[in-house]
Amino acid sequence: MSKIVKKGEVEKLLGCMITDEQFNKALGYARKKQEYIYNRDHRAVVLQRWYLVKLTEEYVRSLALSKFTMDLCSTLRDMEKEHSVKNQSAPTDNHIVAVPAL
């Protein structure tokens, strides 16, 4: 049985298109994980092609989540920097509220 995993197979499982870079990176991680699992457990099922396809799918999802999280953190950090710059501007008297006497 062929050990070649095709990008289209992984995309079909994911239900979306992925870049060649995403696919190649995920496949590399999946092969390493497959080898690690087999060396630890020596189960023949781990060496089957479909198993590598599923591991690749898992890594595409994991890498996408990591990228999303990093992008979100970067955006929030940028927002905090922008907010910090605005707070360092000259103070105004807008925060003083007059309270009427009773």
Counted beta strands: 0
The DSSP helix count reads 3
Q: Could you state the oligomeric state of the chains shown?
A: single chain
Helix content: 55-70%
Mean pLDDT: 87
Unreliable segments of 5+ consecutive residues: none
Beta fraction of the residues? Answer: under 5%
Order of helices and strands: HHH
State the end-to-end CA separation: 90 Å
What keyword list fits this structure?
102 residues
Structure description:
It contains three helices and no strands. Helix 1 (7-14) packs across helix 3 and helix 2 packs across helix 3. It has 102 residues and is mainly α. The protein starts with 6 loop residues before the first helix and ends in a 15-residue tail after the last helix. The mean pLDDT is 87. The chain has helices at residues 7-14, 20-41, 49-87. It is elongated, with a radius of gyration of 25 Å. Helix content is 68%, strand content 0%.
Quick gist of this model?
Helix content is 68%, strand content 0%.
Helix/strand layout:
Layout: H1 7-14, H2 20-41, H3 49-87
Helix pairs in contact: 1-3, 2-3
